[in-house]
Write the structure tokens for this entry.
Amino acid sequence: MSVDAEAGLLRVATAGSVDDGKSTLIGRLLWDAKAILEDQVAAVTHASAARGHDGVNLAMLTDGLRAERDQGITIDVAYRYFATPRRRFVLTDTPGHFEYTRNMVTGASNADLAVVLVDARNGVLEQTRRHAVIASMLHLPHVVVAVNKMDLVDWDEAVFTRICEELTAFVNRFDEPSLTFIPMSAKLGDNVVDPSDHMPWYYGPPLLQYLEEVPLDDPAHNLAARLPVQWVAVPAVAADEGPNGNANGGPRHPGYAGQLVAGTLRTGDKVVVLPGGATSAVASIDALSGPVDEAAAGAAITVRLADPVEVHRGDTIALQGAEPQVGRCLEALLCWMADAPLVVGARYRLKQTSRWTTAVVADLHYRLDIETLDHAPATALGPNDIGSVALTLSDDLVFDAYRANRSTGSFILVDEDTNVTVAAGMIVAADSATHEQDRPVPTAG
């Protein structure tokens, strides 16, 4: 018996500038896919009428915060779940306003696919380019560009073509992501769930069909196994047992619980516990459903090892021969989220998987210019800036480069005094000697 996690589930994050129609698009998708409960329909209908809207304001299906409804913008990250006969979905509605870019990074960090909206009237804006850069940094395997509000430009193919060419030229300056363009009107429903009669020049699928058919190839399943230990479950000792064994004299080893963030783990696998380096073999695996012979990425499991090795919360159990890196010096990309700037010499708490340590900013290599993609010299990073830094840690960290493993290659920085998250980081390498072409960030070309 084996356990696999979240098979057939597609996580979709939306992004775009303010008033490009992200919340309306998700509302239309849910509405036309008949994925809305009757009480939700009644609540949104009532709220739309109270605000004087002509008909139902579909954006209110996702704009759940009162502040959002009052201001007509998305502030927080909203999640909606629905399913069709072909696939299950988690839809993440992320904010478009510049000052909430940090929320977009949070919402998209676990996505399989991003839908970036562009208002056909306004074309490609700075925030559009910013979201394309973030999608590249996060290594999202699929990005859809939804050219919205085509009804307000008379369904003009030339407008759509111009936007496609401009954004394609921009993203071609770095390695990824590849883009799929869909012209639509979220308000009217054209090319959201049903094909549009207003744009016969478009031969591609509507958005929902694309989301149902896009390949689901979770790269985490193809990586070497990584089990960050969240909890050490020490077995109770019965009255007729000795301190280190059961009544029959056999050993009773602790269980090490956590989420398998990459690869497949099987009973009998030879493993190493890092950063300590102790080796053993997998004696048993327990999932929520009971004992299993193997588990795949995403599964919550408890592993027992064949030997009484020392394992602590924050350690990582990995396959022998395919170990992650261990070190105290990192080169990383940061999306800075705090109002107070990041400066060289500042100290923060760093959390990566289940491990905490202290990090000091040893160097600030550059700030990324979103307009030109140049690496601009900088002495600080301000709110929503993206930059490259060198970090020195107080303890060994077990990690992979983010390009190789999104789970073990990402981290957050937390202010020691306020406990507020100030940055999201992607590990580039174990030191600052990485060649330019290896860095997972756009460069001007």
Notes: The first helix runs from residue 22 to 32. Helices lie at 22-32, 38-50, 66-71, 101-108, 126-137, 157-171, 207-213.
